[in-house]
Design a protein that fits this description.
The chain is an alpha/beta fold. Helix content is 20%, strand content 39%.
Length: 414
């Protein structure tokens, strides 16, 4: 299929979309990849006229594909015993020797993505991956993996970077996972998929960093069988535009999910946390806590939705909370929490607050001799770290230290 064949599907394509068509045409993809690209082409790059993207206009942010920045330096390091997987913007590398219960398999050719019609950046990534060198990995977990898995993703100063991970967790298996996304591509889109069998467990910690030249989309999906447990903690600093999107479905009874996160946006940085949870089985639990702090010129976005169907969603226990601080005049925060409930025997709550620090608490700390800037930083840190409590033991303190540096304006911005 040539670029000329594909372009008519895109209405009034931008220069970036034309470049994506050329890039896809050069891959000569298979049927699954072409299907994913056809779905992406129905809308093109997400834009403000799409309800779920009205505050994160990728089309406007990426007018053409241009080389990204150098990868951000970072003080964060994975635990010493971690199993390391790295992505250089084009291909994955991983150890030859792996512990018992863990298998890693490069995948070429298209791999069907069932949610392509709902997730445009996921559809684009599914279309653009499955090529040589290996940009898609299948990771199979069949037991309790003794060491955590550390995944480092760099854009490689490329104009576009696409990578895909598919996790398959067998019954009663367990995986601790740390993912570090450090920017470095003008447009980067990554797709991470989880399938958890009965009583499988995942503890996932995500750190996202980038520069104000980088547009990054991290699209994740998770399907939980009966009594599966999925915990996710995210700390994001954003970029020119960053979207961290998680779609989770409870498919078996008594499954549990925790989706916690914190976003910190300095001037010129944009962070979007979007989640969608479907309670597709009885007696499932979801707890979600998102905290944010945004400085003058920064933008933070939270969109969360819990869907509880009428019959299969009975006895749901779900709680969604979003709390954010505007650190300065000129900060922007947009929030849209939603509950769509059709079942009649559930416990579902949600809350949303945005505001400034408590003046009385600030005054009290200053009266005890703390400078105003230090008092503000300490209060904001105490506010944010609640959302990081479930991060992995070897990473949690490093995330808190990165938060401290941001709040004291010691963190390098680019």
């Amino acid at each position: 299929m040539t670029a000329t064949d594909l372009l008519p599907a895109l209405k009034n394509p931008t220069e970036a979309e034309r470049q994506l068509v050329d890039l896809f045409s050069a891959y000569n993809g298979d049927e699954n990849q072409r299907r994913s690209f056809d779905i992406f082409a129905l809308t093109g790059l997400p834009h403000r006229r799409m309800e779920q993207w009205k505050w994160s206009d990728v089309r406007q942010a990426v007018t053409s594909l241009q080389d990204g920045s150098a990868n951000r330096p970072s003080d964060i390091s994975a635990p010493d015993e971690a199993i390391s997987i790295e992505f250089d913007g084009q291909s994955w590398s991983f150890p030859d020797e792996l512990p018992e219960g863990l298998g890693i398999f490069p995948r070429t050719g298209g791999h069907d993505f069932g949610q392509a019609d709902r997730l445009p950046m996921g559809a684009l990534t599914a279309a653009m991956t499955g090529h040589e060198p290996a940009d898609t990995l299948i990771i199979e977990v069949s037991g309790k993996v003794a060491a955590p898995l550390s995944i480092t993703v760099r854009g490689g100063a490329r104009s576009a970077s696409f990578g895909r991970l598919v996790f398959i967790l067998r019954e009663e298996s367990h995986l601790d996972l740390f993912e570090h996304y450090s920017g470095g591509a003008g447009l980067a889109s990554y797709l991470v998929e989880f399938g958890l069998a009965e009583k499988a467990q995942v503890s996932r910690t995500i750190l996202q960093e980038a520069s104000t030249k980088d547009v990054t989309a991290i699209t994740s999906t998770a399907h939980l069988a009966a009594e599966a447990n999925f915990e996710q903690t995210t700390l994001a600093f954003g970029g020119k535009l960053t979207r961290i999107e998680t779609h989770l479905e409870h498919k078996g009874e008594n499954a549990k999910a925790v989706l916690n996160g914190a976003y910190l946006a300095a001037s010129g940085y944009h962070v979007d946390f979007t989640t969608h949870v479907t309670h597709g089985a009885e007696s499932c639990v979801t707890k979600q806590l998102t905290k944010g702090a945004v400085a003058d010129g920064g933008r933070g976005i939270f969109q969360g939705k819990f869907l509880v169907p009428r019959t299969v969603g009975q006895f749901t226990d779900a709680d969604m909370q979003h709390q954010a601080l505007l650190l300065d005049n000129g900060a922007e925060i947009f929030a849209k929490p939603e509950l769509e409930i059709y079942a009649d025997d559930v416990e579902c709550e949600h809350g949303n607050t945005s505001g400034q620090l408590d003046d009385e608490a600030l005054f009290y700390m200053q009266q005890r001799g703390l400078p105003k800037t230090e008092a503000r930083a300490l209060l904001t840190e105490a506010f944010i770290v609640e959302a990081l409590e479930k991060a992995q033991d070897g990473i949690r303190e490093q995330l808190i230290e990165a938060t401290r540096k941001f709040l004291r304006r010691e963190r390098e911005q680019a």
